[in-house]
Structure formats: C-alpha cells, structure tokens
C-alpha cells in the first residue's frame, strides 16, 4: 500500500523544533531542583537583577507549579521558556503555572492573576497559565501591565477576565485563550492577537472582549487576526451564545479580521454593555473577511464591516519588528 502525505504535513514535521534544555545563561526551574536551580518560578524571578541591562532568561522544566508569579519592572529584557518538544504550538506544552485567586480574595484584578507581568520587553514561550477559580468572580490568568510584551505558544485558562491586556504594545501569537465573560479585556493596551485559538466555555451568555478605551486619545486597540473562535473541548455551547465583545468603556475599539467564527457567535456580533447603560456612542467595532456560521447574520447597528484589514503597524507601531518574534506571525 502506498501512503500519501500532504506536503504541508511534511513541512510541519520538518520545521517543528523543541526546546528541551536551557538556553545559555538561563536560570533553571525544576520540580526536582539540583544545586544552582530553583524549585519555583517566583524564586528564579527574585534571583534576577532588576537594575542590570543585560538580557535575562529563565528555563522551566516539565511540571505543574502551584504559585502566583510576579515580575516587577526591570531594566533588562526578560524571556521565560517552558520545556517543549515543539515550540511552534501550545499543544505540546508541559509546563503549567496555576492558582485560584479571585476578587473574592484580593483587592483588584491585577492581584488575582497567575502571572503578573509588570516588566517591559518581556517574552513568554510555551507555558500554560491557569486560574482555576471558575464562575462567580474576576480571576485572571494573566495581567499584562507593560510595553513590548510577547506571548508565544502560551495557553491562558480562566472563566471571567482571563487575559488582562492593559498597558503598552502587546503580541499574542499561536496561543490558546479560554474563558466565558469579558475574557480578553483591558484599558490602554494596543494588542495584536495572531493565529490564536479562542475557546469559549458553557454559559448562558458570554462575551469574548471587553475593551476599556475611555477617550479618543486613549491608544487602546485590540485586533484579532487570522484566528478562530469555537467551543472549548468538552463544552456544549448553544449556537448564538457568545458575542465578539461589549464596551467596558464607550470608546471601546476591537476588530476581528480573517478569523473563523463558529456558530457559538451570535448573529448580532456585538453587544451593549447593559440595557440601561449601552456605552456604544463612540465604539469602533469592526470585522473584515471573517468566515464560518458565526460571521453570518445582521450585525449590531453600532458595528462596522471594514473595506480593508487593519495592519499590524497600526496596532503595534512601525518599529514592532525590533521586539516581536516574527517567526510566530501569519
């Protein structure tokens, strides 16, 4: 019998690369730490200088790390790598950082996050960030609070407010983002989501984005590019349950483009914040060349069908190539 393999499959196998040992100069985190290594991610972060200007890195071996990680502002660029046999995807990730803080426990959203990233020029590769709190309160997997941050092959799991893209220019590429309520949200960040799998949980109603742009001068802009939206594995989600977004503030700005939308997306596309508080007078909600059953239907009157796609430079700036790992872009 002759076997046939599509060319793209052969290319994928050829191009897949692993990262199974620490890059030179990295601090090492391991569940079975030996001399010179660290048992928790936070202890490795704490060992780094915040005043050095030389690039820094941390490598994490396989395992589940039950902790909250805080990365304070620093002068150096920092990269954290998770052990993986395939850096090109999140599906083979073997490192998970998890905890369950919510606003039932602490004073604000940022303090609930599994990873509190407050440092500019930060990259994270092939790590799963999980907040297990579930329904009932804001509980973040990520609080991204600084400029020029990139997340590559990362999984983000939560229910309400999973990813806080809050400040500066940010990139999310080849990632998985899971949630139900306002689970991509923030106030001033410009964020580009590229080849991201957005997965929604069983709920009576859900909202993917809640952008909090509050004025014409606020730079915040979320663009979901060449991605896809569908029900999370093991979740039964009725057709039309989810909306692409609702406005946390009334200058909210979000675009979905060239993205596959399954039937979990409501034909209206977008939703007001609340029946007595719509917040739609200055929103910019657009779509371009989306496909799938969720791209059909009569969209909300305050949404736009765009004549052309938004360019990555519009969101991240003309100098984005200096800090973005372009090998992950579509």
From TrEMBL:
Active-site residues (renumbered): 182
Write down any Gene Ontology CC term: extracellular region
Q: Where is the Pectinesterase catalytic domain?
A: 29-297
Tell me where the signal peptide lies: 1-18
- Species whose genome carries this gene: Westerdykella ornata
Gene Ontology biological process terms in this record: cell wall modification; pectin catabolic process
Q: Which Pfam families match?
A: Pectinesterase
Reactions catalysed = [(1->4)-alpha-D-galacturonosyl methyl ester](n) + n H2O = [(1->4)-alpha-D-galacturonosyl](n) + n methanol + n H(+)
Keywords, comma-separated and alphabetical: Aspartyl esterase, Cell wall biogenesis/degradation, Hydrolase, Secreted, Signal
Specify the protein name: Pectinesterase
Q: Name where it's found.
A: Secreted
Instruction: Copy the pathway line from the protein's UniProt record.
Output: Glycan metabolism; pectin degradation; 2-dehydro-3-deoxy-D-gluconate from pectin: step 1/5
* Function as written in the Swiss-Prot or TrEMBL entry: Involved in maceration and soft-rotting of plant tissue.
* Family (UniProt): Belongs to the pectinesterase family.
Q: What GO terms are given for molecular function?
A: pectinesterase activity
| EC code(s) of this entry | 3.1.1.11
Keyword Signal part of the UniProt annotation: yes
């Amino acid at each position: 019998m002759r076997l046939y393999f599509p060319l793209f499959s052969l290319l994928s196998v050829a191009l897949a690369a692993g990262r199974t040992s620490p890059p030179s100069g990295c601090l090492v985190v391991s569940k079975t730490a030996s001399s010179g290594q660290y048992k928790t991610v936070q202890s490795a972060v704490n060992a780094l200088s915040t005043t050095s200007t030389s690039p820094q890195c941390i490598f994490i071996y396989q395992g589940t790390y039950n902790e909250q990680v805080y990365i304070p502002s620093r002068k150096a660029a920092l990269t954290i790598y998770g052990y993986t046999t395939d850096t090109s995807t999140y599906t083979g990730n073997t490192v998970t950082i998890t905890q369950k803080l919510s606003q039932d426990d602490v004073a604000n959203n940022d303090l609930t996050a599994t990873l509190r990233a407050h440092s500019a020029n930060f990259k994270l590769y092939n790590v799963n960030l999980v907040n297990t709190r579930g329904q009932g309160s804001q509980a973040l997997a990520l609080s991204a609070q600084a400029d020029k941050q990139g997340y590559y092959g990362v999984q983000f799991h939560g229910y309400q407010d999973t990813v806080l893209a809050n400040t500066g220019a940010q990139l999310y590429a080849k990632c998985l983002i899971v949630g139900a309520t306002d689970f991509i949200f923030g106030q001033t960040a410009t964020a580009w989501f590229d080849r991201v799998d957005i997965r929604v949980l069983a709920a009576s109603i859900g909202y993917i984005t809640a952008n909090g742009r509050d004025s014409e001068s606020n730079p915040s802009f979320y663009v979901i590019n060449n991605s896809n939206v569908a029900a999370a594995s093991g979740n039964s989600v009725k057709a039309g349950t989810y909306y692409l977004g609702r406005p946390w503030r009334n200058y909210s700005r979000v675009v979905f483009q060239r993205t596959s939308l399954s039937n979990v997306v409501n034909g209206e596309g977008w939703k007001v914040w609340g029946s007595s508080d719509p917040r739609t007078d200055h929103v910019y909600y657009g779509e371009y060349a989306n496909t799938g059953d969720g791209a059909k239907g009569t969209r909300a009157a305050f949404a736009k069908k765009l004549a052309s796609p938004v360019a990555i430079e519009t969101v991240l700036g003309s100098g984005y190539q200096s800090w973005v790992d372009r090998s992950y872009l579509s």
